Records
---
Amino acid sequence: MDFRKQFKIIIAGAGVAGLTLANMLEKFDVDYVILESHAEIAPPVGASIGLFPNGLRILDQIGCYESIMSLAQENAKLNYVRDENGKVLTTMNDMSDHLLKRHGYPMLFFDRQWLLRVLYDQLKYKDRVLTKKKVSNIMPTTGGVEVTTVDGDKIQGSIIIGVDGIHSTVRGEMFRLGHELQPGYFSSDQEDKVPAYYKCSFGIAQDVPGWKGGEQHILTGKGTSQLVVSGPENRVYWFLFAKLPMTKYGKDIPRYNKEDEVEFVKEHINLPITENITFGHVYAHRLSSTLTPLHETVYQKWFFNRIMILGDAAHKPNPIGGQGGNGAIESCAEFMNALIAKKNTQTTSLAVLTDREITDIFSQTQAARHDRAEEIVNAAHKSQALNAFEYPLLSNLVWKLAAPLAGDESVFCRLAEILLNSTTIKHLPLPYRPRALPFKDELPEKPVGRRTSKYVKVAFIVCMGQLIWLVGKAFRLPITDLGSWADSGPMGRRWTGSQELDWIIDMFVSVFACPLNGRNQAPKLQLVYFVSQLISPLLIYTIEGYRIGNQGTLISLPSLFTAGMQVQGIGRMAPIQAAFSALSSHELPTGRFVRPEVAMALIPALTLGYVIPTILALAPGNNIQSWQNWIALWQLAPPIFSTLTWAFSKALRWRITRDQSSSRDEAEETQKLESFDRYKTTDVPILQFVYKYAFALQATAHISILAYAYSHDISLFRTFFNLPNIFKPEWNLVDLSSEINTFFKFDQLFATTAILASNLYSVWDLRRLGYIRTREAFNAAVGVFGGQALVGSGATWAALWYWREQVLSNLGQ
């Protein structure tokens, strides 16, 4: 029989993927029939489902979101990670509300049966859903397929989409036909390569004594982990994962019965969930439960002829990541994108599609989803391995050190890596939902591929490493010769009473004294210029340290870099900081946020801690001892700036909160509310004013010093460059002043080079992430280069950060 007179899609399976796909097809008036093996559409099989923003965004497009939100919901208000004894390792507040703010949709957890009911009720043609129709056999026909069910019915269609789960009959038939009709198309051992690393007890309990609603618990352990979530109607959803003694593959993966479940429960009945509740307490109040092995795989080929598999039949992650159902929804959306794109190229209808055109649709679907499906499967596998202490050293470092330090933004960022790269149905409107983070398909420009991004990052870090190596060649400060006040001989000051410490201070003061007291104007001019351009490094290292997205990284410790500038030189610290920034700096706009009181503290702290001491240290005075004191104090200017920033911000914080109630409950509630400040832009105008201040100071210094050099016939080349070959073992410089001047020139040169490279990498980073268009990136890069000559390195950096702040803050608006 020729089925080309009409186009009908046979959907095998009325689960989340099958019913979602049916709703999508109805939006485009594409005929379909669903074959469901169960006797009812939403059977009470005891499973729960987590819906994340990537899945909800697509469900919103097909009109199901409001119905889903109308279900009884209980969002998790407290999210805990606990150790194997039930003791808290980390706590996070209002995760679902944060996801709503960040992505426009919350995280929902409820009975899978309820979602199936919503999807089914949304269907216009419910008569197209056939129950008790388990697929038994598939045969290709001219222009279509013929499906035989277990009860002997034969259903004809143009194509069949198998969304019938990990034990997919459609996949088995597809492999059979592939081996028969096109040997070699599928590898003969594909099913045998599917691994199972864990088994899982999951189910639904209700009215568990002592259970607190609105909580989610992740339990870590040696070889086990748990995910236990509060649900509506006083429900508790649990997943208890236990690592198999050895990885099983394919046909060797066991299937469990009720007797196996009883033994599993006995083995783990005393496993803590909290310090007061065990797995046994939850299991005793179960409504339903199941023990199952966990397949983890992404099949290499999802289609043959006019057959395609989607959802768990094609890509099955560990459920710890909550992306199984969401990933299936995404796959259905990509299938629709390919189908409707092909439909729009037809002059007649889909009924005339050839086998080659059907293959194109299937191929485009898999191409759009395969890598992302692998990403989701791999991410879930790594998460499970981390929770179950497969690598104890790594798990201990993460859960007992890194996670408590990093804060909740790092958790949201890891989630965003999965959520933001999701798809939509391209030919359906997307309802407006305000969100702080745009999905990747909403960005101004398509992000650069991961491989290219990785290569550029590695190249940049290698270049910074090369600079650090060159610094080691160039820095040849004669430490033992230092300690004199220019040509006046040793200072011999008693600064502290400690001879060793006094010598160190004499050494630092001596480094400044030589160029400032010398007769040659060029070294003095170079030093004045150099220290004036250190405002931006001090300021921006500090700002980056206070950004919420940099918590838990070395970037969050700006004093390491600012103090290192004085001890090791900015020429060495700039490439080190740039490399760490490229490795670990925040990428999401929400990580940009700096508390307003910190932003307000920056200008007074910078002025008192660095600008004024610098002016007094550089300005010669009649009182030599007083001048020496200012030069000595200047050595502490960076840590003084950091300390003043901290102190002023704390004082401002106290002033803001002093009128509020000091009760513990109200203080905790205020802290929770303030965690949502990262989605505001109250800090942006303050920070931009700070950048203007830094720009004005450094640009003025740059222009004034260049003008002075020009008017006094001082060679800029000799002042800032004219350096010896760093690869020569001996430089034979004439005196100590020349050696110090050479050190400062190299320090400035390497610092400027590292900062210039870091500025350009920051522009690249914005383009890589899709936050700016290519032309904007090009213009910004030109501005960075041009700014070096026009306003100087420091002012250019301040201007770049002014613009960058605006770019990041505007993305979520």
---
Amino acid sequence: MVRADGEVRDVLIQLRFMDPDSCIFTVVDITEQQRTEESLRFTQFAMDRARDLIVWVRNDGSIFYANDSACESLGYSREELLSMTVFQVDPTYPRQAWVPAWTKLRRDGSLLIEVSPRRKDGSVFSLEISASFLSYGDGEYACAFMRDVTERKLMEDSLRMSEERFHALFESAGDAIMIVRDVIIGCNGKTLEMFGCGRDYIMGKTLAVFSPERQSGGERSAEEAAAKTRACLQGIPQFFEWKFLRADGTAFDAEVSLTSIDIRGEAYLQAIIRDITRRKRTEENLRRLSIAIEQAAEEIIITDAEGVIQYVNPAFEAITGYSRQEAIGQTPRLVRSGVHDRAFYEDLWNTIKGGDIWTGRITNMRKDGTLIEEDAIISPLLDSAGSLTGYVSLKRDITEEVKLHSQFRQAQKMESVGTLAGGIAHDFNNILTALIGYATIVQMKMEKDSPLLPYIDQVLSASEKAADLTRSLLAFSRQQPITLAPLDLNDAIRATEKLLKRLLTEDIDLRTNLAGERTVVMADRSQIDQILFNLVTNARDAMPRGGVLAIETAVVHMDRRFIGKFGFGEPGQFVLASVSDTGMGMDAATREKIFDPFFTTKELGRGTGLGLATVYGIVKQHNGYITVDSEPNQGTTFRIYLPAVELTAVNKERQTPAVRGGDELILVAEDDKEVRGFMCDVLKRYGYRIIEAVDGEEAVSSFRDHGDIDLVILDSVMPKRNGREAYEEIRGIDPRARVLFMSGYTRDIVLDKGVEEGKFDFIAKPLLIDKLLARVREILDR
């Protein structure tokens, strides 16, 4: 219906006939009602199709209304839902909680809760309910708008679990973790443990508080930290080593990982700090150990469990001659010499494979083929589980040490044999003194045409040969009397060269190569000649088919390097004389015995075995050294080193004074009856008056009883009192007493008895008449 103002209105017309001709129209304006109904239809439509679940519930819990989303989410039809209660939809909801909840809803007008209903298929999901209270007529209703928050709950649970997990990891981390924004705003328990403080102490402070003024490299901590912070905030993570200070001021080294993290849209720094003090200490120890291994003088070899070399130190390279590159990947057989048999190596490997340490001496071979004597310690390497991972070998080169020990043993042997030989020669000299002396007296008393004279000559000739033998023994034992004087070795060789050539066969070429500088030594000329004759004779016999014999001289300087290399000598200048031949040479066993007295490789009757022993003794008596280098079929070289002197004077022959007698009183003290008798007979024959003493004690007593004795002749070795003791007592009686010592030993042995050199005169046995008389007269005429 249209109103006068043009507005259209909805009306309800009721027509009632009064009679056939009249009726009553009732017009009711239902415009508002229509609008309300339309609104209700729209509301119903909206509620039915809303995405949220909408359910109306009565105060007894029965469902009054459910929209499409509720039906769809719960899996029930509308008819099914309208016949159910909330306790059927959510069996977990406690009935005793319903009344308090409804009371609260009525009082407050609204209620917000979360429930977990069960779908028709039995699955459970989460709903967030926003309920409003509605009272209509006699009924009370709750209009519940429900939203499925299952995914949100899962996300929240996941986030909560992540946060819990992060917090657990954060707190249980083995490294210190700090969250920094200008100052420290968060840290884990490890941080407090590492820095030795409580959380209140560390929070709100800057990292500079926990850093020294300067870092290990000299950088200022504040400047360096600021630079790293800027770089990190620019998106460049930082990883570096840093020196921190604990709360008590002690410093420690750490590795720091600095990254930028976003928290609620703001940039923060996360610092993960690892204390590397122990690692740095371990690294330093490993560095020192590595340096020690690299610089060790001993060979160090490390192999794997199969024995393949993994590492060798520089000492291995220096000693064996193999480079590290050549050795790695090889086995220790690389230096095997072939000296040891299979059983030796089987024992070695069985020992170390069984987990034990093998120690012993082993002979290996250098790259150049020369042999090395080594003391070795080989140990198995085990991991923490006790499994074998490899082997380590420590070897010390004792080649020179073995050589020195061999030389020492040889020297001891030579000393012992020399002492024995000297003792024999001394006793034999006493016998020869009497033999030669009395034979000479007999010779002097015999007529020149006596038929017995040739026999006496033969006795004297044989005695001279015996004396030569004793001189050889004394030379070997370094007890032969010698007269030292400055001698140019070059001059001595030139003077004897012609004689030496006469010793050689025509097929031997004698060559000399003498040093251009002076080669002056303190030596006994006759002894040097004997060395040359003996060595040349030996070389000749070693070259039956001819060859080359070379005599050379040089001046060498012995220093520590020389002594360390060759194993003998003392610092200073030495004259070297070498005698080399191209003969048969000799093996090691022969070289060991070559200087032994009476040792010879010559045929029976072709040598005494004293030639080289004599050379050895003479060299030692001259404070020199002798070496021999020889191999079978490679010839032989003898090298003699004698101390050089600055003197340029040469040895001159002394003229033997004429034999004269006298009438002075002489005391002769000699324990050997034959020698004493011979001496007294000779001296008496030449006019001297004689007093005899059989030992040192009688000599002192006789000197004390006869105050007018002009000369005392003392044997150096006597019973009761030796020559030195008797000499000292005699000089105590008369400091001006003149004494002549005699001995079958060298002058050095007499000195060893305690007599000061320069305060006595000396004559060597065997005594020859003319030499004895000349020496006595010389002393008496002073």
---
Amino acid sequence: MQRDAKVSIGDTIRELPAVGASASPNNGSGAGNIVAGITGLDTVNLRQLGVTRTLVLFDGQRVVQSNVTGQIDLGTIPTALVERIDVVTAGASAAWGSDAVSGVVNLILNKRFDGFRASAEVGDSYKFDHTNYRLSAAAGTGFDDDRGRVIAAINYMDSPEVVFANQRSWNSYRQLISNPAYTATNDEPRYIHVDNIGLAQATTGGLITGPACLVAVPAGGTCPSPNPLRYMQFIGPNAQLVPFDRGIVDGPISAGGDAEQLHPSIDNLTVDYNTLSVFGYASYEFAKWLKASVQLNYGETNSMNNSVPAIRQGNVTIQVDNAYLPDSVRQTMLANGMTSLQIGTTNMNNVDPSAKGKYSHEQFRHALGIPVATTNRKLKRGVFTVGGDLGGDWSWNAYYQQGKVRVYQTTLSNTINSKYNMAVDAVLRPGTTEVVCRSTLTDPTNGCVPLNILGYGVATPEAIAYVNVAPGENYQIQDLEETVLAASIQGTLGFGLPAGDIAVAFGAERRTERGEITSDAGAQARIYSVANFPTFFGKYNVKEAFLELEIPLLRDSIVQSLSLNAAGRITDYSTSGQVETWKLGLTSQVNDDIRLRGTISRDIRAPNLNELFSSGLSTLGSAVDPNTNQNVQIFSFASGNPNLTPEIAKTYSVGLVFSPRWLPRFNLSVDYYSIDLQDAIFQISTAEVLRRCNEGQASFCDQLEFNGPAGALSQINTLPRNMASYKTDGVDIQLDYSIPMGDGTLALRTVGNYVFNLSQEQQGVVYKAAGAIGGDNPVQGFPRARFTASATYKQGGTSLTLQGRFIGAAKLVYDWTAKDVDKNKVPAIAYIDLRASHDLTDQIQLFGTVDNLFNREPPNVAVTPLRGQTAYYFTAVRGDIYDTIGRSYRVGVRFRL
């Protein structure tokens, strides 16, 4: 950890090849999501099975969830006292507890720390647009002949600058579109990569999209009187009307022509955040059989991020008497018998569409239509532990833990839909030149302020303030609480087989998880474009008992040693009843050179608070009505399901460790693993629901509601179900070799992972994802191969490291062929990093790092408009896999006394 000097512990862990797509404020994952309270979270996802299937422990003890979706924020852990990080990548529920389906991340603290240490460091990108800082300190001392000890630590991180996608040259606004030359019988692919993708149904100054025809047209007929204003756009401060070249249109997006590329440019590659963590620990040994300790943690994270703009894709009605409508347009409408126009707008007319400079959240907070969320997350955790020796090699341990997290999130620049609709309907007060809302003519005290959406920079601050939420008006508060009471006893039985005595550990635990969300009345009434936060209260308790045995079977016989590890755990959930987990493992030291190991286990993950109790989150968006093929405004409604049951996994692993006597200091380990997860909890996205309905899957059509105007699509419902299964298998490799060289030592290390299979089954259909990383793949995948290799030379107080990170080639979609896309392959990439440190004195050390030394740009990972608006709003890259920032530097100083 000290060598790599990462911004956070999470960044260090995520370099392990066994770690899949994980959220981090430093890679932008989750940056566009302002509804789940996930901004600023620092998480780990082992085996690409999901963050919630990785159990995170703090010194072997559970930590309260950081939001209602069950994620644990590693950013609240004080880095100065972390002695090591134990990562178990096999099924571990029986030994460690539920949720350890893909493994355990256990952060071990140095509770014997003595002295003082501190560090200060600063980092930045090669463009000097991502400055970040970290300060940490720890102090510890013993007293009363070292029977007592007091330790304190503090850590502060600050990353105040956000990097937006338009700040990087690799962002060419590339996506996939339907190939105009494609037919079912020729050699052309269905989709092609195209740069400079934009919206086909909206512009910053406003795009006239309808009506298409001036008279009614029978089904299948042609329009005899097309609208002469259709696909004209308003530009400039005076709403000048000019033609809009739509280019190649593919659903909601278009390529070429006049389509704007503004929205992908405001995609966050990083998050603006700061984190403070404080830790205190005190212990005292009253007797050999009784030692007591108290541990207190406080963590606070503040973060800010923006969502996608509140785009209206051709569904804003402008009446012929609108006060902001240019007179020339009005006269054309009157001459053609039109009473209204349909307008598509990005709702960003006060943000310059030609801006090439750096954006800021402060700018967005005062804009129309770009919601910005500020999130404050506070952790308060206390643990009281007692334990001691019982004689011989027996010992006991018990602890009580209470942890609380409060997440307060407020949203600015979020449009109130009803106010927006009233404000855009602006007219002249009869007999005057005063512009007012039409609603004000009949309700003079309604406070409506007219909003001009036609042209650039024409929305007044007063109109924006009226349409948007007031500071503090739109909010959610998540309160989470975890209490744990656990006890265990461990020792050896004093009998066993001739190979040795049996070691045993057994214990019990009671845990309570509680979560509550409160939100403002407007959110509950779904009046906003986004951030219609639900309210809910949920609580469940868990009772567990476990037994673990270590049984020596052979010693100095056929093999040098052979032992059996067996563990069993009974878990009783108040929500879903009893479930059992178990593990069997064999380890054999065959000879001085070879050690063999293997395990089989049954593991579980229980549904989290959000999956069980969410009353429903509503988000305003748009989708294509399957009945009319028209783009309409809809609500996406995601709720919980109290009937969920625990997921159950079977895990197998077998491995070999080779440490040849003829090559000292050489170690090679190879481990094969296989995980089969059944009854997996899965919630299909609204875009996927719509796609499957269009494919004729009736059960998904049942999740659509048609209560809009003229029976149009109005809502798409989703909820989690035990409807899927996951399978993955692969191999982990680790090689270590150290060589004396001159007056120092050269240490070589390689850690790698290769995934043979990663797949999900839903309702009898198998979706493969190993090496498939595009958004069009039904299941999010990860490159098959990831390897990290390093060479460290250390002499005295000086250390130099050269590190290479290799990410193998991938595909956009697993089963696409040349008939599907012009280029399905995502190329492999390798990064080179440097690390160096030098001890100036016994107390002072200087260090520095360079990541991505050669400034390798990330590969393209484009998606199609079939994925909905996601195809347009987000950059064609996976920040959770690849480096999107470019070369970055870090320097600092460490002190120790």
---
Amino acid sequence: MTKKLLLIDGNSLAFRAFYAMYNQLDRMISHKGLHTNALVAFNNFLDQIVDPMQPDLAVVAWDAASGKETFRGELFPEYKDGRSKAPSEFKEQFPYLREMVALHGLRNYEQPGLEADDIIGTYSRLGEQAGYTVIIVTGDQDLTQLATDKITVNVTKKGVTEIERYTPDYIMEKFNLTPLQIIEKKALTGDTSDNYPGITKVGEKTALKLLAEYHDIDNLYAHVDDMKQSKLKDNLINDRQLAFCARKLATILTDATLALPLEEIEYRGIDYDNLVTFYENLDFKKQLAKIKALQKSGQISGSQTTVEKSINVIKLQDDNLQAVAMLGTKIAFHIEMVGQNYHIDDMVGFVIGSPATGYYGSRDVTLLQRPELKSVIENAGIIKNVFNIKAQLILLKRLGIKLKGTKFDFLLASYLLDTTDNDNELATLAQRFDLYMTSDEDIYGKGAKFAIPEDDARVLAHLANKADILMQVEQSAFDALQEHEQTHLYTEIELPLAQVLADMEYQGIKIDQKRLRDIGSDLEGRIHAIEDAIYIEAGEKFNINSPKQLGVLLFEKMGLPVVKRTKTGYSTAVDVLEKLAAQAPIVDHILQYRQLAKLKSTYVEGLLTVVHDQDSKIHTRFLQTLTQTGRLSSVDPNLQNIPMRTEEGRQIRTAFVPSEPNWQIVGADYSQIELRVLAHMTGDKNMQRAFLNGEDIHAETARAVFGLKDDAPVDALMRRTAKAVNFGIVYGISDFGLANNLGISRAEAKNFIDTYFKEFPQIHAWMAKIKEIAHEQGFVETIAKRRRYLPEISSKNFNLRSFAERTAMNSPIQGSAADIIKIAMIKVADALRNHHMQARMLLQVHDELIFEAPMDEIQELTELVTNVMDSAVVLDVPMRVESHYGNTWYDAK
């Protein structure tokens, strides 16, 4: 087998790594205060590109100093002048980058008088002569000049983990150049990044034409006198010295004298022992997990960490199904599926068992329907540990099985313990408890490379490892919940809510597809009419959906004032067009066109594509572990986002209908729940009095901020302004934000806010206190002890810190409102069951619950739901629930 030599351009890749995750700079900080964004990205490069390669020889070349201290600096003193200094956040990571390289088994090498390119160039030629296949990895296309049949230059793009392979054939195909002509091109164009010029006014296009005809600058200058008289000819003659100087500067040395012989850059392999310590110091949890998973699977040995035993799984078949009945009274159960949508995605297999009795599994999920297994799953006396109980409930419902006896859902517990981590993979979450296993990506691949292994034993072993984690982690997770005072939140709210949500999702909501298509046809007709009006006003046809064409029309041809620019031209965003609407009728028509086109594509066509053929229903998924506030989120599709602002949008709701004849849709929603929670949590007597007296809180606020008498009338504009102030305060709005929302001056906005806090002084005091608490403990809590962690609360970045402070003020309010609606859902579901009603809960839209019920239950249902929701949680102010019903969702509002 041909031996491999790996040469890595350390400086270029380190800079690329830093900027690949630059947007994470203030979030990627170790517990010691070290920025780690470049380290994380560079480590990803080593993991994904280098480690799998297993070269025989390997070196990471670094610049010993600036290029000015090399022969290039002597040749051209301005070489690399003007380069900005490296950011301090990058410099502090640099020593750790070199340590990381060494721990991955690679030699670091630099040599005074040489740039990293020259080290790579020389090693590449030595390696080629010694019979090695040479692989260069760089972020700099200059090194493509080194490509030969034995030397491949891999240039990273989109960060540091995606590469483009440059061979002589590929360079010819892409540039119509040989590798050595890369140097000649630089001779003609110069290099602005290295600050040396080429021929005046010769760019890449001209350079490629010249090289296609003359091959190199020697031949070009041999024939320059034969060229027709032109400005190009004059520039070539005048800049002859610059061209030959540029060629020397661009040429990478391949014959430098290196102090470190080729045979001494042997690849040593990864030093797992010390790499674990390195990762621990940098808080690299995912990287630690990967090492420990490899140890657990026996692929590597030796470590300073505890390695767990490999888990065996017994394949279930007809002759051993009865063994499941002997597993005991506490087991783990897990069904694996392809993808995220448990309503429709295929199931990969399942596993069931415990460490004491062993694990059993199969790729054939229909075995679960057999009496020997079904009886165990449906036995509430056998306690099951699961991961993502809602998914497990619905997957089993698809098989006609009811999951009972579940007390521990690792996903729900993990979510409550840390809402900032949206990685919902079991292997990742287990790392918090120092438990490690192979990730799903390592087993199945990712994206286009996703595939279920043909080896059933490998899949089942992976599932058994998951089940074993579920058994091991339970006590630690419950201990952590108890320490956080979140046991009640878990056992009395989140766990029972999962069952309620599973029932709602599985039930689904009926769609009148004909009605939806009729709405689409009506929208299409209106869109065409507006389209024609736009063309008439424009005086020409153009692509209305093209921001570029629209920008040219509005700002160049029609001469409208430019409000904002983007990197690619004029901004035609909604906020820009709204500012211009009064100046030209065409702008208002464009806004109408966009609004109707979005309704048609997103809500008509989009909803029709997700209606299930079997029951003509939509089965959304409510994400219970996504938001940091505890609010539910709806996906596939998002039914919490059906438009309400316009009549055209509201018409979409007329297609949501009862699933049974002579039934109706019922809606029940909390009125001003967040303001009521605010009054309760802050203890503000003035706001509490308004709610206790049943007064209009927005009208009362209007009287306060506008300085009106207690009994003075409040007009609609005043009330709207007061409403914006009320809800703005809840979200920690600034005078700038309020001014922008209301279209008033900052001075007026500040006066509104100051007056508001005079009227409701305890709200102001509470907000100051909650910010103080957030800074002290790094999190805030809801009434149910749900935590919102605020990692940016101590950030040196003012904007991030300010956002965290606003979040600290809002999260207890919004999160407590989420707690209340969840508690109400559980109690409503219990009440429907206890009253033996046919009515079904279908949707939750933040503060609103949607039901369907037979006509003869409507009165009882509205009274029951109103009473239960009103009393779900006792606050210092009364809750208020409004309910409506009708033939469609539209009518139930």
